[in-house]
Each structure stands twice: as C-alpha cells, then as structure tokens.
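In the current project phase, we have settled on a layout for protein records. A sample record is reproduced below.
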Amino acid sequence: MKTSALLVSAFLLLAGCDRQQDGVVAFQSNRDGNFEIYTMNADGSSQQRLTQHPANDIAAAWSPDGSRIAFASDRDGTWDIYTMRPDGSDLKQLTRGQGANTAPSWGNGGSTILFISTRDAVNGDVYRMTADGSATDRITADSLVKDTPVMTRDGKAVLVTLNIKGRFSIASIALGSRKVTVLTPPDHDSETPVIAPYGDEVMFATNRDGNYEIYSMTTAGASQTRLTANDVDDRMPSYTATQGEVLVAKKGGVYRVTLATKKETVLSYKGDYAPAWHTR
C-alpha cells in the first residue's frame, strides 16, 4: 500500500510538472484572407480564431498573468491598440484617433503597455499607457524610426527595433534619460527583440549570416550568439517555458525549435506569423 501511494504521488507530481511546461501560443494568421488573431496549444492542436473582423488584427501579446491579449488592429480606419480575453471576449479599445498605434507589449508586471505611435511624430515614438488605456506618457522624442518595443525585466530600459537609413538595428533606450545605445552592428539587419523570462537574455532575428537566423545576447548587447542554423529565414522568435526551446515564424508557419539538436516541430502552417507563448 505504501509503495502504491508513493507511485501515485510521483505520477501526480510528474503530471503537475508537465502541466507547468504546457503552454498556449497566440499568433496572427492570414488563412482567412486577412490577418486575424488565433491561439493553439503548445503542440499545435486546438487552434481557435479569436478575432472576427474584415480588417487586420496583428501583433498579439500576452499579459504576464495570461488574462488579456493585447493586439493592434486597423478596424476603425487607423491602427489602434486593443485588448481581449484569451477566448476573444471582452474586447476593449485602448487608443483612439491619435495617429497609428502598433506593436503592443506589456511592461511593469502587466500594469502598463508599451506601443509605437505616430501621434506626435511621423517617424513614430515609444509610448507607455496604463493597462486600461486611461493614462499615456511619451517615452521617446527623436527622429529615429522605431518598432517592436519591449521593456527590460528591471524596468530601466526599453529595447526597440530602429530603422537607421534603411537598416534595422536593435537598440536600448534608457527610461528617464532617453539615451539611445545601438546594440547590434550596423552592416546588417537585426529586428524584433524579445526578453527572456529568466536571466539577462534577449532573442532577436538577424540576417548577418545571409538569411535570417535567431540570435541571443544580453540586454547590454554582449555575448551575441547564433541559436538557429538553416537555409530558411527564421524570424519573430518567442521564448517558451522550456529553456533551450523557442518558437519561430518561417515560411508562413510557426515552428518549435529545440536549440541543442536543431530539431524543428511544425505547429501550424497556414500563413501564420508572430507567435507569442504563455505558460498555462
């Protein structure tokens, strides 16, 4: 009896660990003729369409607690930021009628949302608003063209993709001083930084090797290391709950990649992009 009880306890513990590693992936897909937001399980099953609109819905971003998904949509004639529940209900529009507002990401533990807006400058600046959209402040004010802002885990800086004379680079912008530090070399394109849920690591896509591959570095730009290696562009990376496994977008599909073995598992392949992981 005692042995049986121990086996049952061990089984339940392992099952609990498996559930901890389980996750759900939000992504955008043009399988319906325009971009909509979908979710699926970590193995690609149970794909569900969350948005239903003839306009484009893109750039899904999970809140840290998984209770909301932020995204950008041009359903009102210009790009604005919205949030919804993970089942697509309780849609809330957070920006309205102030330039084009795109590339949302969550900061400060989920209490704020970063985004790019052209409300004050045609090149676009980084803004931060409360999670309900009730208060907004401008983080940058310069002539640089920006995209895909993400806040560092310590809340002291924002990483962005900069367009510098037609080349894309990853840069760090210090909150408060607005000091801009370019982190990647200027002789190739680097884009879409994402912050690791652990340690001081950032993933990004770069074409320094001829085609786009996923690299990692510290938030200060040190230790730039190639993570993927093949002859097809790997872009739009996302961390998963398992260290050493990442999601990438390639060839109109979402793939899960085991970095040590370079094994790739196709999760979805129907015009799918911009995967974003959240652990259940």
Summary: The chain is about 5% helix and 45% strand.
